Amino acid sequence: MKTEFNRIKRLPPYVFAEVNAMKARLRAAGEDIIDFGMGNPDLATPQHIIDKLTETAQDPKAHRYSSSQGIKGLRKAFVNYYERRFGVSLDMNKEVCVTLGSKEGLANLASAITNPGDLILSPNPAYPIHPFGFIIADGAVRSLPCTPDAEFLAALDRAVRNSTPKPVALILNYPSNPTALVADLDFYAQVVDFCRHHDIWILSDLAYAEIYFNDKPPPSILQVPGAKEVAIEFTSMSKTYSMPGWRVGFAAGNPVLMNALIRIKSYLDYGAFTPVQVAAAAALNGPQDCVAEARAIYKERRDILIEGFGQAQWHIPSPEASMFAWAPIPEPFKHLGALEFSKLLMSEAKIAVAPGTGFGEAGEGYVRIALVENKHRIRQALRNIRIFLGSAGQVLERAERQRAAS
After folding, report:
1. 260, 285, 310: which is the final residue of a domain?
2. 382 three-class SS
3. Whether the Cβ atoms of residue 55 and residue 282 lie closer than 8 Å to each other
4. Rounded to two decimals, what is the model's pTM?
5. Does 1 reside within a domain?
6. Is residue 214 within 8 Å of 298, Cβ to Cβ?
7. Chain segment 300-323, per-residue pLDDT in tens
C-alpha cells in the first residue's frame, strides 16, 4: 500500500513541532513554561459577542446548514466596517466572502487559482500558509525580502524579469507575521501599479489591522485606486475581537478572485455555524471599545517586554503593530541558530518562543515572541531572562556537555 503522498512530501518537517513537543514534555514533568510561542490570543471574547452567540443558538433553525459565502447580515456588517475604517466601498455579493479564518481563505484561494508549476512570489520570512498554501496546490514559490521598501520593489522587479514562467500572484502581509513590519499606502500604490502593469494577482493578508500602537492605523491595499483590479485582501476576527477559536475571517476585493474562492468553497464547506456568524456580525456592528481595550493591553505588554528585555541586554526592536516582537538572537547564542536557541531558552529559562526558521530560511538568527502572556507572566519571564543572559557562559558550557553526553 502506498505510504508516500506527493503533496505531503513537498512539506518540510514542521519546525514548531519539535519545540512544541519539548514544551509538552517539560510541562508533563511539572515545569512552569511561560509560553510566547504560538500567536494564540489569550484575552476573553467580549461578553456581548458571547451573549449573541448564546441567544442565536437557542433557535433550532440556526442549527441547519449555513452559507459557504457567509450569511448576508455578516457580509453587510463587514462592508460597513471597510467603509468606516478604510473608506473602501465593497459589493457584498461580488466582492466579499466569509472564510473560516483568514488561513482557510488563503489556502482555498491558492487551490482555486494555481496550476501545477505556477510561480508565486512570497516574502521570506512569512507566515507558513502564505508560501505553503501554493506549494500544497502544486505551485512553486520564489522568495522576496519582507521589508516594505525599495529593496522589496527592486526584488519584485528582478523576480518578474528573471523568472520563467512569469509569476501569477504576489503575497503581501502587513502588519507582518512574524516580523511586525508595517506598510504604508505609498508602498501599496507602487506594488499595485507594478502588478497591474504585469498582470499579477495580489493576495494581501491584513489579519493584524487593528493591533497597532501609534496614531497611524495600518492601511488596506484596497484604499489604492485601481487596487481591486488585481488585489484581494484577507482579514480575521481572531485578533481584533479575541475570537481565534471561532474561526471567522473575510476575503474582500477583486470579483474574479472572489468568484474563484466562492466557487471552490461551495464544494468544500457550508460556512461557519450560523450562530457564530450572527455573533461576528454583532461584533462588527456593536461597540468597539473592546477593540481599543485589547489594543491597549497588547501595547502595555509590548512596552514591559521590550523595556525589560533591553535592561537584560536583549535588545529587541519595538513593534509598531501586530501581537509579535521579532527578536534577534542575543550575541552569545547566535552560533546556535534559531531552533537550538529556542530549545535552550525553554530548558534553561522556561520560556517558549517560536524559532525564526519556522517562517523560512530568512528567519534564521531570530525568534518570534508573541504577546500572549499577561504582564505578570512577562515580568516573571524578565527575571528568568536576566538570569539566563547573565550566566550565558555557564549555560552554553552546560548545554555543550549535555550534547556531548547524548
Report:
1. 285
2. helix
3. no
4. 0.94
5. no
6. no
7. 999 999 999 999 999 999 999 999
